[in-house]
Amino acid sequence: xxxxxxxxxxxxxxxxxxxxxxxxxxxxxxxxxxxxxxxxxxxxxxxxxxxxxxxxxxxxxxxxxxxxxxxxxxxxxxxxxxxxxxxxxxxxxxxxxxxxxxxxxxxxxxxxxxxxxxxxxxxxxxxxxxxxxxx
Length: 135
Hints:
Blueprint: E1 17-19, E2 33-36, E3 40-42, H1 59-77, E4 81-91, E5 98-110, E6 113-121, H2 123-130
Antiparallel strand pairs: 1-2, 2-3, 4-5, 5-6
């Protein structure tokens, strides 16, 4: 029946896999990462604490720990490329105006090191905070 509307679907892919790096405490109410059908890996709500739930004392330390955590979950899921979405809030050092922006970044990781990073952001938010060029 060449004109049949019936389509044979491929076998179903295995279920989603919860990613839990070795030595980390069991999360409560969330997952560190999910490797979905089709080899998509989702990381949500990741924060900059260590495997014992302790935060480094400063922003730079927390950011480093956050990136290390993301890379650990990526390694656990066998991923090498991640798309990150995040936002910043603060004020411009130059003008004192509020600075609020959202970013999307694409990072490539090899051997737990970031080998490529590309950011996409809202340039209007940058000009609103720092001032518009003279026309």
